[in-house]
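User: I'll paste a sequence; please echo it back and then give the predicted structure.

Assistant: Echoing your sequence first, then the prediction.
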Amino acid sequence: MSTHDESNQTDVNATTVRSGDEPVPAPNATQFTQYSAPHNHSAGFAQARELVKQSQSGKGTLLKKRFLLEDVLGHGGMGTVYKTKDLRKVEAEDPNPYIATKILNQDFKDHPDAFVTLQQETAKSQTLAHPNIVTVHDFDREGDTLFMTMELLEGQPLDQLIKAQRSKGLAKEQVWKITKDLCAALAYAHQRKLIHADFKPGNVFVNTDGSAKVLDFGIARAASKEVQKHHFDAGQLGALTPAYATIEMVKDEPLGFSDDVYALACVVYEMLAGRHPYNNLSALDAQQQKLVPKRLDKLSAREWRALSHALALTKAERTASVAQFVDELFPRRNPLMLTVAVSLALVSLAGAAWFGYSQYQAKQTLQATIVEKITAAQQCFAQSDFNCAIEQSMVATNLAPDNQVAIALLQAAQTAKAERADEEKMAALVQEAETCLQQQDLNCARLFAERARELNAEHSASQLLMEKIAKIEQQQQLALAAQQQSINQELVTGQNCLNAKDYDCALAVAAHVLSVDPASAQAVELKQSAAMAQQQYKELAAKTAKLLDDAERCMGKKNYACAIAKAESVLDLDSTNKAAIALKTRAQETQRKLKETGFTIK
């Protein structure tokens, strides 16, 4: 979508104009871009280029070579709003080049469907071109930064206005002026089948001229629209505001237009009294505590009846639409008009007949719309498009709360959607388990299998998965048993090698067993014993070798007694040493022969 298009609208939190004492954080690392067009030498262009240079030196952040973020105006559920200078307007020498830019926060930005959803929210707001709804120009991205541009408002959020008058509330005349603007905005949205779903003082902005604008229609719920390709709901990342939530909203039931009526009535009461009608509790909590709004003395009996009607906690007792709320709170008839109406009725029965016919036509049109929505819901249901069926039947139930066909369709579609969601979740869990099995991670597979069984223990996919895991576990147990038997046999061989003083053999067996079972205590013991015995053997061999060398030197000196003593020392260490036995025998034999021949032996 072109950044030159300024026809779109979407949500924005309080954008109070104030001095910029906060530094403007950089949305991403690629914030600075060049701004050049050699063919343009206008004064406005020169000013825009100078602003770009300033941004590169740290004064502001530039997005899309066009939007210079200056002051932080506020923070909201979806992101941070900045006062922004549009360099296209600067270049065109527009006397008011300022707009507002909302940079989406991390929760929205990290969602895989964030950009698609932002486009959908912007497109949704295109249907809400109304003077009492904030205007959004466009949406775009730079790198991983998602942002929206919108009109810059001057004034203050309604919640701050109420807070400043907490002790006594706003003036009644001011409240009625704001209320009429809010009713106009919501009625306009409801005509286009959009429910705000998060209406509260923080989402209302009061301009300096006293007029009011509704914000945050970007997360509005559609009462009737085609199911979109992407099912990410921006409202899921924003928290529900319990103080303005009906019982149906708290219970996560299908929404209706009267949910906005209830929130609107709470806001009107809060403007008048400076406090919430139910002490900032949700409708469900207020009902459980049996709370009743305190009567406001500044209202007439008729005005209090209208407000009380809209504040009803149960849907059946509450004002059904914004139009009805307006009719009850601001009736259009007056004594003069009533006199004229009576006179006309007496003078012209034809006029009365025409009025009756008009009423009949209106009812026929309403009935036709209900039938159309029910038919559409039935067709969607037949095509297994349950989201569409829910939306169409919900519109029908909003128009005709007692229509049993619409109610049955809504319930059936909701049940079917829930069952489909369970099937999809089951399929996802089974797939995750299969992936774990392919990776031979049985613990991981068992975790997902348990979740699948918790979801539906009777489901065939869940049962087959558990059976498959049980079979693999059995196979693993058999393999482990066979492996253990093989290990035991190897350990016997290793012990035999150790007994035979074949230390290299014993060490090799121990190393192989430990490569298969690093926790084998017997293999560790075999390794340690073989290593110790081998070390002792090497030390003994070194000692006997030295004694034998000494014995040979004694023989060379014909000191046969010395040679015999050295050989016997070797035999004390190793009685089977053949070299020592031979040397001793040779020394003794030589000594004997010398004695027989009469030689003196030293």
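Residues 38 and 50 are 14 Å apart (CA to CA). DSSP finds 21 helices and eleven strands in the chain.
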